[in-house]
Amino acid sequence: MAHAWKAKPDEVPLASLVRREERQAEAAPAPGNRPMSTDVAMNLQRSAGNQAVSRLVSSGPSGRAHPVQRASPAELDHTAGQAVPPKKTKDHEIDDAGDVRLNPLWVPLGEFSGRDLDNSPEGAKWQYAVTEDGEISLGSEDVASLIPRAQLDRLLAGMRTKQPGMTADDLSGGLENMGHPTIAAHFDQVTGRTTHNPKGRVSGELYRIGGVWTLNDKSGRFMAEKVRGKPQPEDLERWLSGVAQRIGRQTRRRINYQIMKHS
């Protein structure tokens, strides 16, 4: 049974992500020579990248920025698997500068809430990835499963105020099929841009099974035998149970896990 709790005032539901992009679309300048179907992802990438850099550093006594202290690589290897490059990064997941695009629904676990899960429609599918530095990020390559059709229509209407020729397919092309490399994004602390070919640790899907949110190890990019080999069952149990516990603590919801790709 899911645990009941009162949402904090600063927590916002998933729908706010769409509203934010609607506002960005209305205020965005006319596009240049970039394909219009990529503008949605590019807008989100710029804003989220800059915010991510702000979270990655903190001010020390001298006033200088210092990286946040994290677990050692050896500790992370044990708790979440080795950081490996993706088996493949697809062409549409790479921007004009050769960097990995940011998933349109990318969100760090620290900003994810139980309301995001509760407000996800039936059939919704999230993806998660443990990044090289041990953080958990979430996103989806199936945005339509998470955002109601009416909200996508409003987003399209907002985009059309600047790009009158945009079609539903154009919008879909900028939002869908952005896989795990776009979720395990690593940000340059100076520019806020994502870097090429980010490494990921244990990764997979998060969706409802019998009304209970359940995560697995299904990632063809970071869990493929070609890049990860054949993990031992006890390692997979440790990695997945650790991720389930962390997401459960953050969302205050019951999170189950199941081994699928390497079962």
What does this protein structure show overall?
The two termini are 26 Å apart. The radius of gyration is 18 Å and the shape is globular. The chain has helices spanning 15-27, 39-56, 73-80, 114-118, 149-160, 168-175, 225-228, 233-251, and strands at 57-59, 65-67, 107-108, 125-131, 136-139, 200-209, 212-216, 255-258. The strands form 2 sheets. Strands 3-5-4-6-7-8 form a 6-stranded mixed beta sheet, covered by helices on one side. It is an alpha+beta fold and 263 residues long.
Low-confidence stretches: 1-16, 22-68
Largest sheet, spatial ordering of strands: 3-5-4-6-7-8
Beta-strand proportion: 5-15%
Q: What is the N-to-C succession of helices and strands?
A: HHEEHEHEEHHEEHHE
> What structural category arises from helix and sheet content?
alpha+beta
Helix content: 25-40%
Mean pLDDT across every amino acid position: 78
The largest β sheet comes out as: 6 strands, mixed
Radius of gyration: 18 Å
- Gross morphology: globular
**Number of continuous helical runs:** 8
Distance between the termini: 26 Å
Q: Give the tally of β-strands.
A: 8
